[in-house]
Write a structure and sequence with these properties.
The protein is mostly helical. Helices cover 28% and strands 2% of the residues. It binds zinc ion (2 copies).
C-alpha cells in the first residue's frame, strides 16, 4: 500500500478491509491517545470527526476534508473514501449492526452493515445483530469498539455468531 508521510510522533494504524471510517478513527485515536476534538483540531476539521464517528455524513466529507485527514492519519484519500458509503447509498445511523462471523475473521465494523439497503451479511448469509444477544444492550458507535466486546456484559463480538440466524430460506 502507498503510504504518505505522517508526523513522527504519531502511530500509524493500517486500515482493515471493509472497515468503516468510525471504527478506523476509533483505532487511530486509541493508538495515539487522542479525543475526537483533539484529532479534529490537528486536522483542522473541528467537530467533523465526532460527527463522522456517528456516521453523520450530511453533508458528506468534502475532498478537501478527506485530504486534511489523510495527512494526519497517513492513509491515502482514496482509501479513506472506501470507508465511506458510496454517494448513492443511504446510511442507517442507528442501530449499529454487527456480523460476529465477520468480526471473528477481521475485528472491525464494516461500513456496509450501516447501508440502508443492508439486510444481512452477504458473505456468511447471516442476519446482522443490532443489539447484544446476551444482555440486550445496543452496540455503541464503532469508534468505541476498541475492546471488541459488549460494553455492558463483556460478551465478545466474535462469539455472537452463535445467535445469528441465517438469511437463507
Ligand atoms: Zn459476516
Ligand atoms: Zn451484552
Amino acid at each position: 500500500m502507498e503510504s504518505i508521510e505522517i508526523q513522527p510522533w504519531l502511530f500509524r494504524v493500517e486500515p482493515l478491509e471493509g472497515e468503516s471510517l468510525s471504527h478506523f478513527l476509533g483505532r487511530f485515536r486509541q493508538a495515539n491517545e487522542l479525543t475526537p476534538n483533539r484529532l479534529g483540531k490537528m486536522a483542522g476539521l473541528g467537530g467533523a470527526i465526532a460527527r463522522w464517528e456517528k456516521f453523520r455524513f450530511n453533508p458528506p466529507p468534502s475532498p478537501q476534508q478527506l485530504e486534511a485527514l489523510a495527512v494526519v492519519v497517513g492513509v491515502e484519500t482514496e482509501r479513506l473514501q472506501e470507508m465511506l458509503p458510496p454517494p448513492d447509498v443511504g446510511m442507517k445511523l442507528e442501530p449499529i449492526r454487527l456480523c460476529g462471523a465477520c468480526y471473528a475473521q477481521s475485528p472491525c465494523h464494516r461500513i456496509e452493515w450501516q447501508f440502508k439497503t443492508a439486510t444481512g451479511c452477504d458473505r456468511h448469509k447471516l442476519r446482522l445483530l443490532s443489539e447484544c444477544p446476551n444482555c440486550g444492550a445496543r452496540f455503541k458507535i464503532p469508534a468505541l469498539w476498541v475492546d471488541g466486546w459488549c460494553s455492558r456484559c463483556f460478551l465478545s463480538f466474535k462469539d455472537i455468531v452463535k445467535w445469528q440466524k441465517t438469511t437463507l430460506p
